[in-house]
Amino acid sequence: MTAVADPLIRLIGVTKRFGAGAAAFQALKGVDLDIEAGDFMAVMGPSGSGKSTTMNILGCLDVPTSGSFLFRGHHVESLGRDQRALLRRRYLGFVFQGFNLLSRTTALENVELPLLYRGEDRWARREMALAALDKVGLVDWAKHTPAELSGGQQQRVAIARAIVTHPDVLLADEPTGNLDSERSIEIMELLTDLNRTSGITVLMVTHEADMAAYARTVVHFRDGLVETVERKAA
Amino acid sequence: MTDPAAAPPPPRQASSFRLLGTTALLALRAIRRHLLRSVLTVLGIVIGVFAVVTMVTLGKGATRSVHDQVSNLGANVLTVIPGTSQGRGGGGETPPPFKPEDLDAIRDQVAGVTAVAPIAQTTATAISNASNWSTTVKGTTDAYFDAQAWKLANGRIFTPQEEAAGKSVCIVGKTVKDNLYPTSSPVGSSLLVGSVSCEVIGELALRGGGGFGQDVDDTVVLPLKTVQRRFTGNRDISAVVVAADPAYDSADVQQSIAALLRERRNIRSGKLDDFTIFDSRQIADTLSGITNVLTAIVSAVAAISLLVGGIGIMNIMLVSVTERTREIGIRLAIGAVAREVMLQFLVEAVVLSCLGGLIGLILALFTSIGLAKVIKVPFVFDPWTNLLAFLFSGLIGVVFGYFPARRAASLNPIDALRHE
């Protein structure tokens, strides 16, 4: 029991400061966090607690001011813009509160988008996108544009777009924030199902304890630090 | 395991060729999504390409038309008239007209001359049965028709005997025929030219424009002697038409004639010629030159609208980048690298401007076919003009699309995603 495998993601003493001089704002003050592969983690905390900043760093959208970010045992905190983009393309999927689908573009085309950047040919794109839409139960809506879909459906298309590349990690930023409770439950059940059946690691920012209840691990942020990590028995 | 420099397993990256195809697809989708705006964006390019290509095409048609008229003349035709082209102010004596012997000398002593014809010219009113028409009366010999390579539509030219006798026979040009004999053939009828009643023995074929708005078909041709006796009342020859063998350089022939005439007209060396030789080919070249310069000027003005069109594309692309900030954020979050976002917007600009160029070319094609008919020049399709205009419109897309594309690519994904 000596060689414990590295966690999928490990943050060590991560700080983040915005601005400079008197106007500087210390968003993160030394965050340590391990995320195991296959976990379903809810990230909670009041606004300004640093949870969004942490998510941006975890999503390789931003870089820490200091500290280490290990992804699959590799240091990624100092990667350049394009290398981080390639990392996102290969390993990460994003779901946003506001869905962020391309308007006037069909659900299928939206889901195909990440595959375009991966250089898949059109037949592979179509096949993979339809498979992803099938997983979220929207294969019959492939030809519809976001305007023709309900909020819950739009979020499911967004989830299909996030998982179409079979990423290691799905980062969801308040995915149920714009949905009523019934749709929220559907989305949470979908995420739980994906986490269980595909083994995809889910990191979810949420305000609502109801939603966090679906997670296996709940992390509370306060004042730029991890306050508590609460792990439920499997 | 925790080598600080090691990156995770290299992610798959699209080849640049496939990337270009993909971005072209994205660009076409974006253009289709904003169809009206796309059309308005490229309007400047459309008008620019349309104007330039139409102007150049019509200009080339005009040049071609000048050349066609000259090649109509067959051999090189030199026209010699007394006097200098830079008409001197008063005080100088009027240069003497040519004598019949001058013509013989030119024919016999200058190498490369195939035909020489004298012209005595005046104007008179021609009256047929029903109507009258004021026209140019030319007195000449049968050699004139050879020298000018001017064919008859009907009838015959006068014989040397008729010429020598100064018979009252005439050959009418197409314009005269159309005005005096609109329906019937004039051959055989009698025509009163000035105060001379003459028999129409022939009808000239249509020659077509002589440049500078002068109508060469508006003429009645009589034997030289008839005109000298009955119209001008002297033996003056007001012009000599010389046809040169195409195998000879017309400049050489021109020089030989000049030398001969200087000798015959006793012009001492150092003094200027008191006659002028026009070379039909030179006139044609001058006309073409003028046409080309005009075409270039008008095209340059039209090209300015191409530039304005390019600025229009930049303008709209910048608006588009701002409007689509969130879309760019989504693309970046999904894993597009800066280069891909830049390429997408650049390709969009190029596709737009090329599309505009293509529409402009099609419009120009139909317009120049129509306009060429209206202004009576041949329609000349020049593939190089069209290709160049098309490539230029693409270039405009690259130049004016670069700045907006770079701006799009440099967006921060977090800020872009938050953008409302």
Write a concise keyword list for the protein shown above.
heterodimer; A: 234 residues; alpha/beta; Rossmann fold; six-stranded mixed beta sheet; globular; B: 420 residues; alpha+beta; six-stranded mixed β-barrel; 10 strands; disordered N terminus
What does this structure look like?
The complex is a heterodimer of chains A (234) and B (420). With 234 residues, chain A is of the alpha/beta class. Chain A has one domain: Rossmann fold, CATH 3.40.50.300. In chain A, 34% of the residues lie in helices and 26% in strands. Chain A is built from seven helices and ten strands. Chain A has helices at residues 51-58, 81-91, 107-118, 122-135, 151-163, 181-197, 209-212; strands at 9-18, 25-35, 40-44, 66-71, 74-75, 92-95, 169-173, 201-205, 217-222, 225-231. In chain A, the strands form two sheets. Chain A has a six-stranded mixed sheet with strand order 6-7-8-3-9-10, with helices on both faces. In chain A, strands 2-1-4-5 form a four-stranded antiparallel sheet, covered by helices on one side. In chain A, helix 3 packs across helix 4, helix 3 runs parallel beside helix 5 (151-163) and helix 5 (151-163) runs parallel beside helix 6. The longest helix of chain A is centred in the C-terminal third of the chain and has 17 residues, at 181-197. Chain A is globular. The model of chain A has no long low-confidence stretch (mean pLDDT 91). Chain B is of the alpha+beta class. Chain B folds into two domains: 16-68 and 286-418, no CATH class; 120-245, no CATH class. Chain B contains 13 helices and ten strands. A six-stranded mixed beta barrel of chain B has the order 2-3-8-5-7-6. In chain B, strand 2 (113-127) and strand 3 form a beta hairpin. Chain B is elongated, with a radius of gyration of 35 Å. The model of chain B is unreliable at 1-7 (pLDDT under 50). The chains are: A alpha/beta (234), B alpha+beta (420). Chains A and B meet through strand 5, helix 2 and helix 3 of A and helix 1, helix 10, helix 11 and helix 13 of B.
